[in-house]
Structure formats: C-alpha cells, structure tokens
Amino acid sequence: MKIKDIAPLKRVHRQLTDEQIDAMRESIAKHVPESQVAIADLIKAMRLATQMSQREYAHLCEISLAALQKLEGGAPAEQFQAGTLDKLLRPFGYRLGVVKAAGEG
C-alpha cells in the first residue's frame, strides 16, 4: 500500500475543511493496524492531516526538526530510537509496539 492511498496530500494545506481533515484522519486510522505502509510514510500522512508544517509537528512531538526531516526524507525508520517514533505517533493516539508477525513462530 502506498501513502497516496491513505493521504493524497504532498504538502500542508491550511484551507482544508473540517470534513476533509476528518476523512483523512479516518482513512489513516483505518489502515494503521493492518497496512504495510512504512512508518515514515504513515507519520508524514498524520502530520499532513494535522495541517502542520514539519517544524510545527516536530515542536508538538518534542523532537528535533532535523529528525523529522530525515525520517520523512527517506531515512530508514531503523535509524531512529523507538522513543522518537513513539513521540511522532502519539498525537494520533498510537504507540509504537511489538507484534507477532503473521505466519511466524
């Protein structure tokens, strides 16, 4: 699944209606537990749904702007501490966790 299937925006749009924002948030929430979307793409979609710039979202999440830019720029999520990724997910009510992979063990 591609990020465009979840949130088709590529930049912040501050003129979105409340209904459009709610629809984006619902779409993101619907895909979180079942999708194979990269965590960086999911976080970017979440940020865009909040109508926040990278600077604003980094401040909200209490992480550095550089870290958010690096993650959204394509750096592998494995390069980030779990705490950083967790902070980025919290504004949407999610936490980073461990789940058993399907078909294993």
Mean pLDDT: 79
**What structural category arises from helix and sheet content?**
mainly alpha
CATH architecture: Orthogonal Bundle
Number of domains: 1
Uncertain regions spanning at least 5 consecutive residues: 1-6
- What is the number of beta strands? 0
Shape category: globular
Order of helices and strands: HHHHHH
In which range does the helix fraction lie?
Answer: 40-55%
Q: Write down the CATH topology.
A: 434 Repressor (Amino-terminal Domain)
Overall CATH class: Mainly Alpha
Largest sheet at a glance?
none
Terminal-residue CA separation: 25 Å
Assembly context of the chains = single chain
> Rg from C-alpha positions?
14 Å
Number of helices in the DSSP assignment: 6
Task: Give the percentage of residues in beta strands.
Answer: under 5%
Please provide a written account of the structure.
The structure is a single chain. By secondary structure, this protein is mostly helical. It has one domain (3-92): 434 Repressor (Amino-terminal Domain) (Orthogonal Bundle). The protein contains six helices and no strands. The chain has helices at 3-6, 18-31, 39-49, 54-61, 65-72, 82-89. The protein is globular and about 40 Å long. Residues 1-6 have low confidence and may be disordered.
